[in-house]
Amino acid sequence: MAFSKTPAVSTYASKTIKLINTWESRDKNANKDNEILNCFYEFVVDKSTGDSDHYVVKRDGITAYAYTCPSTNIRGIFYWEDQNKLFVAYDNDIDVITASTGATITTLSNKFTTSSGEVGFTEFYYDDTSVKVVVSDGTTLATIDTANNFVASVDADLPTPHLPYPVFLDGYIFIAKTNTTDIYNSDLNAPLAFTAGNFISAEREADKIVRIAKLNNYIVAFGSSSIEIFWDAANLTSPLQTYDTPIKYVGFLGGLARYENKLYFIGNAGTSIPSVYVLEDLKITELSDPVLRRYLQDKTSFKGSYVSCGGHDFYVLVTGTLTYWYDMEIKKWYRIAFKAQTDFPIQDAVSIPHATLGNISLFYLSGVAALHVINPAVYQDAGTNFTCRLVTNKEMFDTLNRKTVAKLIVHADRPSSSANLSISISDDDFQSFGTARTVDLNQSWPMLPRWGQFRSRAHKLELIANVPMRLYELELEINMGQS
User: Fold this and answer.
1) For the residues of 83-112, what is the DSSP string, one character each?
2) Can you give the pLDDT at residue 94?
């Protein structure tokens, strides 16, 4: 039946498009199906009534930290909370900074024998209650005290080279010797002193240790094909003893980030393709969905960190040409990008107190000398507008009849200044999107008329303005058609 303004059976309706969707991209580079970029979902539940609201929220912006590194070759950062100090390792040097202000206190020059690769830090608590920071580049192992004195180990029994990830537990420093299964411990209450033969081997599986980390009161040894866990049993040569639990056959590939009592990382089980895992209280859980695993399939280098943004905590995964982050509370994956880039190459992040912004996440980017912070007061990246994008699922409203849209109405918060939301449509299964139309959200009724006909349609929403955004849903005034 042809379209009629006065049909015998009324086919007019008001339909809504929900913006909260399950990630369904069939394309590993996120070029098709729904997408969410530089924004995230937020659910608000009234615990007394059970009522809930849900939104799509634009992420906070990024501003430069007051300190800029003298080199783009940043190798590691560490926040010493008790001293309000930030350590930035680069080239052969370490800058010591007042964390809350970004002011440089001193530079520890020419302290490393290497000039590239990661540098790891941890705090060491002595039995007299004093504290120092232990730092390693895999060759040099040293302490830094509250007066910023740098003292390197000269012990001939220090395992060299070792993985640059020192771990403190119960008065010892533990390090893993490179290309071995061995975890060495320092002498008790002496982080720079080692005794020959004081080590334990991860021997349950024939693979070498590629990373160690602390989880609760355990040492976790990540191998290339397995994970073995140790605890302090106060033994003689090494205080460690293998924890009597089934070995976990997941190999470590990279991207380690510690958050509370959880370790997030990229690994693979046997010969499977890479996936994201979390180790929590000795239980391992896979977090990837098929879409993300398709993207990870041919990737070999991974960086992981965690940041806080807009009241949410995220695990950030950097690999290839795209960056994804995982909302730890609502367990959703999204994509993020810095400025107009396709990726957001965060190499590591720490939480610091900021003199004006409060407690925020600070991070450094690959090949960039400037450090940056997540700033809840701006919605730009270092002075550059970034794109906030949401692509909906295809919607046919339960019928493939040819439908006609009279109006499209955006349900969103009203910003304090003009902010144009661009909307484009795809009627050909994401093969192409038409010319975008814009609607200013700074009005009581953000509406666009006359959207033509379709059988199934996806919508792309993009906001570039330097304003916050919170979207609820789209409303369509529609004639459902009869054929």
Assistant:
1) GTEEEEEETTEEEEEETTT--EEEEE-S--
2) 98
